[in-house]
Write a structure and sequence with these properties.
Layout (H helix, E strand, L loop, with lengths): L11 E7 L6 E5 L2 E5 L7 H5 L19 E7 L4 E5 H4 L11 E5 L2 E5 L13 E8 L14 E5 L5 E3 L1 H4 L4 E6 L2 E7 H5 L9 E7 L4 E5 H4 L10 E6 L9 E3 L13 E8 L3 H27 L1
Parallel strand pairs: 9-17
Antiparallel strand pairs: 1-2, 1-8, 2-3, 4-5, 4-8, 6-7, 9-10, 11-12, 12-15, 13-14, 13-17, 15-16
């Protein structure tokens, strides 16, 4: 089975950085580029909706916007992560849209949803849109088990019998009832800050959806009825388990035939920049050393 817990480490960043002095917002990435003076109240989704996720030939490109997440960082290096799926009105959509505050010459990010105030960022200095690499397409099929990995309390392989050991929960959506267990309770994150982690869910056919851990955390406004379902409507065709997010407008994030779930911490964009600078410095030192050897 494929693991998605390390996908974020290899993710391709599409930079969106606040210009010096908060004069404007530089937005770059496939399908979008420009320097924007962001008005007070501009939604986070309107800023990142034009970014495209490249998908190589042979990969499952369906709903590829769901591969993306946004990292908001302030001057002190604190970050808050939002998935593109929760921001996109076609998927998450039912929450009040997080927006940019531009008051007193400084930017901030505000999440106005009940219980989600801690997801906001004051003195906002950068936004970075990241695309988790696509999983390779495969024949798919009905899953009989999946792996849970990353920053979780109980990593391992799970089948129907193993899932039944978790506290039961159910959700009814459009008249259909799903039985399973709380998605956040099942993940039971370990040593992971909900504000700075993602959850990547992959299916047997290569379908992939990314959630922010914060959007699933009931303590941060997450819907406690978000479910890892293993029985009820659509089973057994949905495989051993599927995601059920009752608040979503569309079911693009209702991943069925789950093959893998991974919880991954997201590094600060500034840390990526320092790492790249460090690698560049090492390369320069190596080239200088070679020139000295040739001279000798």
């Amino acid at each position: 089975m494929r693991s998605v817990s390390r996908l974020a480490v290899a993710a391709a960043a599409l930079a969106i950085s606040v210009a010096s002095g908060h004069a404007g917002l530089l937005v770059t990435g496939d399908g979008i580029t420009g320097d924007y003076a962001v008005a007070d109240g501009t939604t986070l989704w309107s800023l990142i909706s034009g970014v495209q996720t490249p998908v190589a030939p042979g990969y499952n490109a369906k709903n590829k916007i769901l591969h993306n997440y946004v990292v908001a960082e302030n001057a002190g290096g604190a970050i808050s992560v939002f998935s593109a799926g929760e921001l996109n009105p076609s998927f998450g959509g039912t929450n009040t849209a997080p927006y940019i505050s531009a008051v007193g010459g400084e930017y901030g990010l505000v999440d106005p949803n009940a219980g989600a105030a801690a997801r906001g960022v004051t003195d906002l200095t950068s936004l970075t849109v990241v695309a988790v690499p696509a999983l390779a397409s495969s024949a798919g099929g009905v899953s009989s088990g999946f792996t849970l990995s990353g920053l979780v309390t109980n990593p391992g392989s799970y089948t129907y019998a193993g899932l039944q050991a978790f506290p039961p929960a159910s959700a009814t959506v459009s008249g259909s009832t799903y039985d399973g267990t709380s998605l956040y309770g099942f993940l039971d994150p370990a040593n992971a800050s909900a504000l700075s982690a993602i959850v990547a869910v992959g299916a047997t056919d290569g379908y992939l959806a990314v959630f922010s851990l914060a959007e699933l955390d009931p303590a941060l406004g997450g819907n406690p009825d978000n479910l890892l379902a293993y029985a009820g409507a659509t089973f057994p065709g949905a495989g051993v388990a599927r995601i059920v997010t009752p608040s979503d407008n569309m079911h693009g994030r209702w991943v069925s035939n789950i093959d893998s779930i991974g919880v991954t911490a997201v590094p600060e964009p500034s840390a990526w920049a320092m790492l790249l600078a460090g690698f560049a410095g090492l390369g320069l030192m190596a080239r200088r050393a070679k020139r000295k050897l040739r001279t000798a």
